[in-house]
Amino acid sequence: MVRYRRNLVPGGTFFFTVTLQNRRAPLLVDHVGFLREAFRRARDEQPFTIDAIAVLPDHLHAIWTLPPGDANFSGRWKRIKSGFTRNAVRAGVSASQNARGEYDLWQRRFWEHTIRSDADFERCANYIHFNPVKHKLVSAPADWKLLSVHRYIRDGILPRDWGGNGIAVDGDFGEPED
Q1: Residue-wise pLDDT tens for the chain (178 aa)?
Q2: What is the CATH classification number for the domain harbouring 48?
Q3: Which of 157, 108, 128 is nearest to 63 (CA)?
Q4: Alpha helices in 12-171 (DSSP H)
Q5: Residue 55 lies inside a defined structural domain of this protein
Q6: Does the residue 136 lie in any domain?
Q7: How far apart are CA 123 and CA 170, in angstroms?
């Protein structure tokens, strides 16, 4: 059996991709209130900073910074996924259960990348903010409501027209190709 080893850096900053089991289900945008509530509860129990986020119909991307001395992002994701699932199932969302009685709403694992520099952070944040355009959901990042680009625009970090008209802005988004 392959054992995946996570890079547990206390107080680290991490880029995540978390995906629903059914890649055709728009559950995250249809039930974004449940997702917000799950994030709120997880942050109340174990604080963390959301540096960037994109919520798309079937997956989300986020950059988090954990508090000093804390590397438990897995526990936070477990709390978020289970909180969202619990509320969605209560509301009538159809979800099958596996042999252990767990709902199969989310893919079991998530993808994580440790942010190692300011340039790495910028590349990952740009990837997150351009993602709704990449998936042809909108023609400009500012047109997608469930995106931290609005905070970046408000804070003067990015111009309102950044990444507009479906044309990729200058930059190397996501993981560098070696």
Answers
A1: 556 678 889 999 999 999 999 999 899 999 999 999 999 999 999 999 999 999 999 999 999 999 999 999 999 999 999 999 999 999 988 888 788 878 889 998 899 999 999 999 999 999 999 999 999 999 999 999 999 999 999 999 999 999 986 555 555 444 444 3
A2: 3.30.70.1290
A3: 128
A4: 27-30, 32-45, 73-90, 118-134, 149-154
A5: yes
A6: yes
A7: 10
What is d(CA 6, CA 76) in angstroms, rounded to the nearest whole number?
A: 14
Three-state DSSP class for 164?
A: helix
Q: Which domain holds residue 46?
A: 13-93+103-163
The structural domain count of the chain equals 1
How many residues in the chain? 178
**88 Cβ contact partners less than 8 Å away, ≥ 6 residues apart:** 27, 31, 34, 95, 105
